C-alpha cells in the first residue's frame, strides 16, 4: 500500500474540475482504494497500517493529478520531430515520413528510437499513449515490449497500408492480413497488463476497401481498438473520396468499411461536415485533436468546441512528427491557441477552450476517447493509479509561482509554462516510473 497526501486535482467531467486540498489517496496493488478529503493523514495512516516509507507527503508547491493521455502519436516519427515542416501532408508523407518509417525494418534501430520515445513521453507525463508504429510486425511488437518494460500504458498499432504508397514501404495484399493477425495474437499472448494492440489502417488513401473491411473483422474478432486518420487536409479529403467509388464523403469510406465503432479513434477531423459528425456520433466514434500538427503542417484549424457540442468524445494528440512536440502540455497550449484564433471569427457567445477544458481533454477526456475511462483518467476508487506529482517550484525553468496565488491560477500557470522539469514523479498502475526532475527513468530493461 502507498499513501499520498496533499492537494489533488482531477476532472469529474468537462464541467467539473475538482481541487481537493489536504486529501489522502491510498493505492493498493496499483488501484485506488481510498480517497478522503480534508483528512487527518496520521490517523488514516495508522488505520490502514501503512509504514512511513510508503507515505508520500506532497510539498506546499506540489499537487497530484491524473497521468496524461496522448491519443495519437507516431513512435517512429519521433526522430523527425522539429524538421521537414515546409510541406503539406501528402508531400510531407512522401518526402520525410515514409522514408523514415521504412527504416524500422531494422530491429536494432527500432529498439534505439522506441526506447527514447517511450522514455521521453513518460518523462513529459504521458502515462498512456496510443501509438502508430510502422508496417513492420516485429518492430511493432518490440514497441510493445519496450512500453511494457519501461512501464507505460500503451496501445500499439502495427500500421496497415496496401495501396498508393511507395514501393519500398507498402504491404503485399496477402501478407498485410496475415501480419496484422499475427501481430494481434502475439501481442495479446504476452499478457502485458497495460499494453494492447490496435488495428491501424493508415488512412483511406493508402488502404484498399478490401483491406479495411478485413481489418474491421479482425478488430471485432479480437475485440481491439481501431485508429486511423480522417479529414485532416483539403487535398487529402479530395483524393480519399475520389479513390473510394460510391462513398459519399470521408466518413462514409470508414462507415462502408465497418471501421466506425465505439472503440475507434480518428485523428484530426478538421473538415468534417455536420452530416459526418452525426454519423460519428451514432457510432460513438471519437476524435483525437492534434493542434500542433494541424498548425505545423498547415492542415487547418479544427473547431473542437463544435465537435464536443455534437456529442463527440475528443482527446488530445501530439501527432509527432506532424506535431513537433511529444509533450501533451504543448498539445494543451496549442488547443487553447487554435480555439482562441477560431473564436475571433465567431459570435460573442462562442466559448474558446480554456485551461480547464484542456486539462479535462488531456486526462479524463482522453481516457473516454480511448474507452479507458473505467480504468484511468481521474481518481476514483477502483481505478488504476496513473498519476503525476507536479512541482510548481522546480529549481529551473520559466515557471515561477507567487506564494499567494490561487490554486486555479497555479494550475493555469503550469499548463501554460510547465515542462518536464516540473513533473517530479510519474506513476503507471501504481508503479513509479519517473522520480525526480532529473529525468532519470527507472528503466527496468
Ligand atoms: N495521414 C496518414 N499518415 C499520416 C501521418 O503519418 N501523419 C499525419 N499527420 N497524417 C497522416
Ligand atoms: Zn497521425
TrEMBL record:
<dbReference type="GO" id="GO:0006147">
    <property type="term" value="P:guanine catabolic process"/>
</dbReference>
<dbReference type="InterPro" id="IPR051607">
    <property type="entry name" value="Metallo-dep_hydrolases"/>
</dbReference>
<dbReference type="GO" id="GO:0005829">
    <property type="term" value="C:cytosol"/>
</dbReference>
<dbReference type="InterPro" id="IPR006680">
    <property type="entry name" value="Amidohydro-rel"/>
</dbReference>
<comment type="similarity">
    <text>Belongs to the metallo-dependent hydrolases superfamily. ATZ/TRZ family.</text>
</comment>
<comment type="function">
    <text>Catalyzes the hydrolytic deamination of guanine, producing xanthine and ammonia.</text>
</comment>
<keyword id="KW-0378">Hydrolase</keyword>
<dbReference type="InterPro" id="IPR011059">
    <property type="entry name" value="Metal-dep_hydrolase_composite"/>
</dbReference>
<dbReference type="GO" id="GO:0008270">
    <property type="term" value="F:zinc ion binding"/>
</dbReference>
<keyword id="KW-0862">Zinc</keyword>
<dbReference type="Pfam" id="PF01979">
    <property type="entry name" value="Amidohydro_1"/>
</dbReference>
<comment type="pathway">
    <text>Purine metabolism; guanine degradation; xanthine from guanine: step 1/1.</text>
</comment>
<dbReference type="GO" id="GO:0008892">
    <property type="term" value="F:guanine deaminase activity"/>
</dbReference>
<keyword id="KW-0479">Metal-binding</keyword>
<dbReference type="InterPro" id="IPR014311">
    <property type="entry name" value="Guanine_deaminase"/>
</dbReference>
<dbReference type="InterPro" id="IPR032466">
    <property type="entry name" value="Metal_Hydrolase"/>
</dbReference>
<protein>
    <recommendedName>
        <fullName>Guanine deaminase</fullName>
        <ecNumber>3.5.4.3</ecNumber>
    </recommendedName>
</protein>
